[in-house]
Amino acid sequence: MNILTEEAAIEGKNIIKDFQLGDTKTRVLKNISLKVIQGEFVSIMGQSGSGKSTLLYILGGLDVPTSGSVFINGMDISKFNDEKMSRIRRQNIGFVFQFYNLIPNLNVAENIMLPLLLDGKKMRDYKKPLKDILEVVGLWDKRGHTPRELSGGQQQRVAIARALIGNPEILFADEPTGNLDSHTGAEIMSLLQRINKERGQTIIMVTHSPEAAKSSSRVITVSDGQLQ
Amino acid sequence: MKIILKYILTNVKERKARTFVMLLSILLSAMLLFISFSIGVSYESAQRKMARGMAGSATVSVQSVEGGIHADHIPALPDIQTKAGIVEGTSLYHENGYYETVDLLAADMEALNQINKPRLIGDGEVTAFSGNQIILPDRFTSKYGIEKGDTVTLQINGSPVDFEVAEIAAYDTVFLRHTRGATALLPLETIKEVLGWEDGYSEILIEPAPNSTTGNLISELKNALDNGKYRVSEVVNEAQIAADARQKSMPFFLISFFSLTMSIFIIYSSYKVITLDRLPIIGTFRSIGATEKTVTCILLLESLFYGCTGGLIGIPVGMIVLKGILQGMGKSLSQGIEIPAVISVPGVILSFAVAVIVSLFSAWLPVCRASRLPIKDIVLGTAEEKYIPRPLIVGIGIVLFIVSALLPRFASGTMLYLAGGFSLSGLIAAAILVIPVFTNLASAGLERFYGAAAGNEGRIAARNMKDNKNVTQNITLLFISISAIIAIRVVGNFVTTYISDVFHGAELQGFADGHMNPEFVEQVKEMDGAEKVLPLYVFKNNVQGNSEPISRLEGTDNLEWYNSMFALHYTDRLMSEQAALSFASGERAVIINEDCMKRGGFSIGDRIMLSNGTSGNSYVVAGSFKSRATDVEAVIPSMYAVSDFGASDYDLLAYTAADPDAIMVQIRALFGETSNWSRTVEEFNNDALATVGAFLQPMHSMTYFILLLATVGVINNLLINYIQKRRTIAMYKSIGLSNRQNRKMTLIEGFSSGLMGAVIAIVVSYMEIQTIFLVAGPQISMTPELDIWTFLVAGTLGIIVTLLGSIVPIFKSRKMKLVEEIKFE
User: What architecture (CATH level 2) is domain A8-227?
Assistant: First the structure.
């Protein structure tokens, strides 16, 4: 079931991002505007240094634009303070990174539950969603293991489960298969595709891999800080 | 080589904060160690100076068995450098009912200037010193408000003699003493006249020639002189002085021990991070052909730089601090005793060597571990630390802890010192091994508590501490720091009390030393506010036990009060009751101090003959004891002091009272013009503190340095913690952790680390103190008092330091660039 509606899940308007390197100011994103509608699976591609990851992090609120705005559910997140932005990250969006970014001394279940715990929820009230998501990512039997006891693919699946536990509207993924072999990478892409189709979650993914991009419904190419 | 050096120097330059912390920790350790060595030597030298007092550089004394001695009686031996004849006498100074002993001394000034030149206030010379003139130390003159040119009256052989104060001298050289009272210098002819001394000198002090030893000179003199006519002896017991100084410098070495332990930990933990940071560089070096040895050498060269620089700066800084401390000591003694800083070459070399070795050794472990990692793993970033099974580590930790705690209890003699050293290090090592498991257990317990008290952030913070190496590292350093402070504080306070309060634990609040008849005693008992009044018959050097001279024998009619008034520690607890029963039954019983028991070869239950040359009786030895409050060697029931040795009047009276000062004023009034030496315990202690208490001041100053080192270590650890943790914080932030939540979690973690560090420190320091006193125990007749507040305050300080240290990571993580932290592995 692909729940695609014409309503914008996220919208970026006139995004400009400058980086200061020593005395030199470099414009990485040059007035980018884009809209991703709810339920869409968008891949952002581009060469190294093109600005695709910077765009993803700005859209996801991990970085702020030098100028321009990002709207999630109609709210301009670029003007949010830390408290509001943190709440958006807990409730409305999920992130998957190339290097998993799991907390090494917490087990799988605890890592997955973190966004809910930070949101003040009680672990005992979310046993069912936890079980469901662990089954979706196929790690129910590994729930008590720590990240170091898992393979790269399994760790990435934990990261996906953590991103999904709060049932966010948008899932951001930064090269989710970049650190995996091709077989495991394909498994992860298939999982993301399934999530997008079955749960209707909007996914915005940065990738180098044309193979991975095939899983998405739209591909955006960034070149020299601009959309092609 | 040039490139490697450049690489090392660039590392040092670029990591300014880390370089500063590492250098500071090595510098402080080198400095503390140097001060500990030097202060021990300086202290010993000052002690020796005080004990020698009038003898100065003379180490041998020759006296005539009967009458005086003349300078020409001493043979002209090549091993003699200088000989100074002196005449000694005693007098009493009396003011407002307060008597003070003033020992009189006169010598040929030329010879005296060679062995022990008096140091006058204002640095003048003693000239035209004749007639009824006197030179007094400023310690005495300032106490009684005496000025140069004043007239003082001294009681000599019961008659008052007036002297004009010709000069006031520093409380130094000839005036130094380690017993109560004061020393006064008189012209030689004057002292002979007032004492009625006609026959040469009372003693001749001899300074050995530079290449001769005291022992050699004594044996040469004994061979040359008629032993029946002359007594040749060492001026002071050098071995005893060295032993005393060792005991008093013990806290300083304890400070060094802890500072070194902390430095090792600071450098070790820093290097763990440095090597982790540099794994890619190590990989690069290895991939282009550098051997394991080369990589180890490159990294160790950097730590060598820290060791050498820290040592080279630390020792001169130590010299300045030492001088400051010793000057402070001099000033805190109101009369300004001069204690020169003795800087020993072995002390300098050892402190520098320790700084370098500690730095190299602490870095060696993590560096070697990193150098041995497979190149492929380093290059691919998959290198992991070798896993050691936790039960094995905990097992070793528990066994080590038990062995370290028990070993000193079963060792004796020299082995006791070795066992003590092993125990001190072993307890710390054992705690380090057990800390990870303790942290896990504690975090599990705290998770529930924080969950209820601080919500999910508290729960996550507690859970985050589980299996967290940064947290265990932090707790380890904190516990070492806190236990160091506790141990140094407790031992320091103990040494202060031990040295300056001989009446510690004794019930008496005042004493009167003088001739008192029964009516006098009755009047004291009648005084308003007097509680316990214990009069004693005293026999000095005129009673023998089985022909063994007893220097002081006392008679009492209340042994129970005697025990408590003078804090008698019986060799065996049951002995106290046995002795009380024997005294109460009317038996001829005696209790004897442990030294006298040993000297006389007496045993409990023996019957010994106590005699004074004219009469004697058999007494049963009912007990043995030691006491710091009295130098009595034997105590008998007063009824036998009267019947067997003819005692009629008392010579010592101890008392307790609601207002000891008020009673003392009345006692002094009762004595009137009769000479006596009467003090309240407070007066006595103040006098004692003025002499020895100031020596202990440096120890307290050094506690602050160790606190500084501990703070440096904790801040270093928190920074390391932050460096290692910032990625985790970024991960948390990427999934929605706000700055407020981060602040809450960091503070909870900081508080919990502080709490755990404090709890472990309290337990370990308690065990360390037990070890220290087990090792020192045989030489001391006093048990340490452990004040719970010392432990609690140190623990609380530790928690505060950790909480304060959490502020930096909180602020740093607020400004954290999330993308930079998360994106790169």
Answer: 3-Layer(aba) Sandwich (3.40)
